[in-house]
Amino acid sequence: MFAASIDQPMARWSPGGARTRMSELLSRIARERSDDAFRRLFEEFAPRIRGYMMRQGADGATAEELAQETLLTVWNKAGLYSAGKGTSTTWIFRIARNLRIDRLRKEVAWQELSEEHAETVASEEPAPDEALSRRQREVRVRAALDGLPPDQREVVVLAFIDGLSQNEIAKRLSLPLGTVKSRVRLAYQKVRDALRDLS
Amino acid sequence: MSTTITRHPEADTLMSYAAGSLPEPLAAAMAAHAAMCRHCCSELRDMELIGATLLAEAAAHDTQDGKVAAIPTPPPPPPVAPARSEPLPAAAETAAGLPEPLARRCCLTLDSIPWKRLLPGVWHHHLPLSPGVRGDLRLVRIAPGRKLPTHGHGASELTLVLDGAFADEVGVYGRGDIQDIDYRTEHQPVADRKLGCICLIACDRSLRFKGWLGLLLRLFGPRRRSDGRGRAQAATS
Questions:
Q1: Which of A9, A58, B30, B141 has its CA at a distance of 20 to 30 angstroms from the CA of residue A48?
Q2: pLDDT one-digit tens code per residue, A74-84
């Protein structure tokens, strides 16, 4: 299927299919060190990571550099990615997020990149259907985010994509800090509710 | 041990941490708590799904000149990482008792912290923050029964217990528990009468130091009477 689609123009992001395809690409990178899979992952994600970095204030050249570095990290550390433990997009998000903290905010990124950590905390082996459950969770989260009232979605996007702290969000929106906090909590409650029966 | 953790951060703190937008001192305390708390690890994984979803939907930016960016040639495969020679300690902690992220970044163990005495019964050790970062990150050791003076001062504050315990109006906080103080809350915790307490205190404003010192000075300064009452309460709690 990869050979068949290789010459097609880059498709618009299509949720279900594209996600599955991303996991497969990542697995091929991890298992076969496939240049082709890397190129396709790059085409899909580099423009989005570039946009993400620019929202945090990077200029075009820096954003391009960081997009390349994110995806080269994906390539170099693909072995750490395990399809059963997280979704491929979460893995890419983590790498981009930590690079953004390190290079653009010039702070220490305390967040864990891999889930080695969580594994040592967890006492039992992941269930065999974990990958399926992860994917289901992703679908539910997407639906919950789509269903958020605009004021709640706005603070979530400002935190995750614009990288603004709660204080910065309060300033940007001219809201009291308490209002920002309660909107974030309400938004998370909805995501939580959407996942309730999957845990 | 993770089952004994009963106090977790607020959802908005976890969310900012997952988003990568929690100020550095607070992020350090969150990382240390997450290393000890299975519940929060799993919450964080779900929250990262929010980031992954939004990133996947984020508007694509073409390069400045509108051309398709050159795709870098991936380097030759790195050598296969050797299997971890020794198994990780059970709860992602060092044997020395500091949560792994703290021990790794600060090169410390609970026994090797170079404490500086602040006042009788209170010691502290500053942990460095990146240049230009506002806030305060420090380890604090409180003698058994001593009051742990804490104040809101309009800042966000996280207190993670690393050893011993403290109690306040809300309840008892033991090892691994984190207190996510509302920026408007004022309260007066007391270190455990037998064990004392070692905690990591993170704050996103440096202003807090004034409040801290101010409170300590009040405790040991002219207002003896209120200090005496506090100690009496501590002793009976």
A1: B30
A2: 888 877 766 55
What residue segments make up the domains of chain A, in order of their start? Answer: 1-108, 128-199
Which residues sit opposite B167 in a β-bridge? B172, B190
Q: A1-108 in CATH: which number? A: 1.10.1740.10
Topology adopted by domain A128-199: Arc Repressor Mutant, subunit A (1.10.10)
Q: What is the pLDDT of residues A91-128, one digit of tens each?
A: 899 999 999 999 999 999 998 877 654 444 443 344 55
Q: How far is CA A193 from CA A74, A133, A156, in A?
A: 32, 16, 16
- Per CB-CB distance under 8 Å, the chain A contacts of B206 are none
d(CA A38, CA A25): 7
Contact B48 A90 (CB under 8 A): yes
Tell me, what's the ipTM? 0.85
Global pTM reads: 0.82
**Rounded CA separation A124/A122 (Å):** 6
d(CA A154, CA A45): 23
